[in-house]
Amino acid sequence: MRRKWKQLASGLLIGGGLYVPPFIGRLLPKVPVNRMGWYPCPGCCPDDCSCENCAENRPPCCFKVVISGVVEEVPEDCGNCDCLNDTFLVPFDSACLWQRTFAGIYCNGSPVKVTSFLDGSDYKIKVEVGSNVWIKNYSTTKPNCRSLLDESISFSASADDCDASGSTCLITAIIADNDETCFDSNYDCSFCKCRRWPNNMLVKLDEFRAGVLCPGDICPGLNNTDPGYIFNKSETTSCLYTFTLDPSICGIDYMRLRFTFLNVVGDIYPMITVDLSRLIGSFFNVLVWRKTYPIEDLTINCMELSDENIPWSFHDGSAYHCDKDGVPGWPTCKVTSLN
User: What are phi and psi of 15, to 5 degrees?
Assistant: First the structure.
């Protein structure tokens, strides 16, 4: 089981049970891919981008690829073939190739690729994820790549560990007047199933009462179940969401939600943590909720959480801050994915 976690986490569990997140060093804000120079055109869909295997030699800046119906063939060899059943935004790379690597969504992290090519006298479009392949033959006519809409690409081959023989693959050209259309930051949290994490998280807090240092109705001001607090995805740190209280409540300035893990003597348990913190130098946790998931789960289904109860974990001194409304017990926390 530990070997499987290492596989899904890109092999970043190292000696002594230490974990090195794959995102260390990523300090710059996320930006659309072409601003990073990952494909050669100066804008998203400029006229000087060319693909000789598309009608009028004009490629779209991006393809939306929708795959469904892939199942496990040999589960112990991969274990996440179902991660292929998703919608992928794949940007233009060069010539007649569109590709993006979603590390860890499929076994060894093979890229999702779309290629328009000439095979003898026949023009074809091919979609690949590792050894899973879909192909459509357009005969001697170049496909109008920029106008494809839910174009069905036929199954061609499966990998040894996944069975795509009953799958469907649809592609749609994306033509846009901005360069952010094909940017997708949702595939880089290794603690979430298929590495997908939502755009926002809804957090509901309840059952607070006053503490000694926060008398009256100050602490109950943290109670928010309708609609709840909407936490925003961090632009610099994967698996992290934040919410700023303005003004602060009894010294609590900042809230965080994280998809993370708990290491118990080398066994790795997926975990969700929610904490309320003070901005004193580095963050100082005041109230913390945590939920761990079975080691067999490997990851959390982060995209489908609905009023998930996160149990109380610890408090920096219940007599001096905000307590649960009623003893015994502690304030409650529930989280919901907002996609």
Answer: -50, 145
Residues 211, 320 within the same domain: yes
3-state helix, strand, coil in the chain (%, to 5): 10, 45, 45
Given this model, what pLDDT does residue 316 score?
A: 61
- Total tally of structural domains belonging to the chain: 2
Q: Is 132 part of a structural domain of the chain?
A: yes
Question: pTM of the full predicted structure?
Answer: 0.69
How confident is the model over 41-90, as pLDDT tens digits? Answer: 434 454 557 899 999 998 998 999 999 998 887 665 666 788 888 888 89
Domain holding 64, by residue range, is 32-174
| Rounded alpha-carbon distances, angstroms, from residue 317 to 214, 233, 311, 322 | 12, 29, 17, 9
Contacts of 187 (CB under 8 A, 6+ apart): 102, 103, 105, 194, 195, 196
Are 92 and 162 contained in the same domain? yes
Q: Mind giving me the DSSP string for 44-96?
A: SS-TT---TTSGGG---SEEEEEEE--EESSGGG-S-GGGGSSEEEEEEEETT
Q: Is residue 16 part of a domain?
A: no
Q: Would you call the peptide bond into 42 cis, given omega within 30 degrees of 0 as the criterion?
A: no
Residues 147 and 257 in one domain: no
pLDDT of 7? 31
Q: Could you tell me if residue 8 is inside a domain? A: no
Cα distance between residue 236 and residue 25, in whole Å:
10
Q: Looking at 162-301, which runs of residues are DSSP E strands? A: 162-163, 168-174, 200-206, 208-209, 224-233, 240-249, 252-264, 267-279, 283-292
Domain identity same for 37 and 170? yes
